[in-house]
Amino acid sequence: EASPWMLLQRAGFANQLGEYWTAFKDLKKVSAALPNNAEPHLMAAAIHLDQAQYDATIERLSQALELRPEDPSIFQRRARAYFVQGLLAEAQRDLESDCKFSQGNPYVRQECLQLMIVRGFDEEALSVLRAEAFAPGVKEFWLGYLHCRAKRFEQAQGCFRRAEALTAGSSDGMSEKSRFCRWVARVLQDAPAAKPGALEEDLGLPD
């Protein structure tokens, strides 16, 4: 009989070949041999996720967390599975735990912030934005979004303008997104500046 580690490797190869039944069979043996090891649960969760079996994904990740309760990567993976299922409160709770155990990873905190905004927790999101540090332009962009949602279009334009300036030259598209949102805020405000050609001007395109 192969060792548990050999079985774990074989399960990984079986998964790559699409032989899921073989992979699950080997993972079951690994779990029996190494009951305190989270790896077979994590691999099984990845297989379930590839097949869009989100309930099973969440179940296996929960089992992995019982064995590694302070692993931020597991919280993050389960949060995404919850999010796809529409379980936003659960997703936010896991992202909060992820942020806690990853010592305030700014990217995780940004995901949590976006989830607050998706759920309509604007005041909570605003408090987070004012209290915490984010990558250049991120705070300004989301403040602009919240101002726009509250119909404070002039303030929104100012935030988007600052976000655009802070992210100029970045490769993540934030500067272009900020420019477009600034134009949208101008149109929504129906300001005199929202004239024919304003979209082209804000996007840097020829008239």
Q: Key features?
A:
single chain, mainly alpha, 73% helix, disordered C terminus
What does the model show?
By secondary structure, the chain is mostly helical. Helix 3 packs antiparallel against helix 4 (54-67). The protein has helices spanning 4-16, 20-33, 39-50, 54-67, 72-84, 88-101, 106-118, 122-131, 138-149, 153-166, 174-189, 198-203. Residues 193-207 have low confidence and may be disordered. The protein has twelve helices and no strands.
Write the layout of secondary structure elements.
Blueprint lengths: L3 H13 L3 H14 L5 H12 L3 H14 L4 H13 L3 H14 L4 H13 L3 H10 L6 H12 L3 H14 L7 H16 L8 H6 L4
| SSE run | HHHHHHHHHHHH
Q: Ends: how far apart?
A: 72 Å
Helix content: over 70%
Radius of gyration, taken over Cα atoms and rounded to an integer in Å: 23 Å
Taking pLDDT < 50 over at least 5 consecutive residues as the criterion, the unreliable ranges are 193-207
What is the number of strand segments?
A: 0
- The biggest beta sheet, please? none
Structural class: mainly alpha
Q: What share of residues are in beta strands?
A: under 5%
Our count of helices gives: 12
Task: Characterize this entry briefly.
This protein has helices at residues 4-16, 20-33, 39-50, 54-67, 72-84, 88-101, 106-118, 122-131, 138-149, 153-166, 174-189, 198-203.
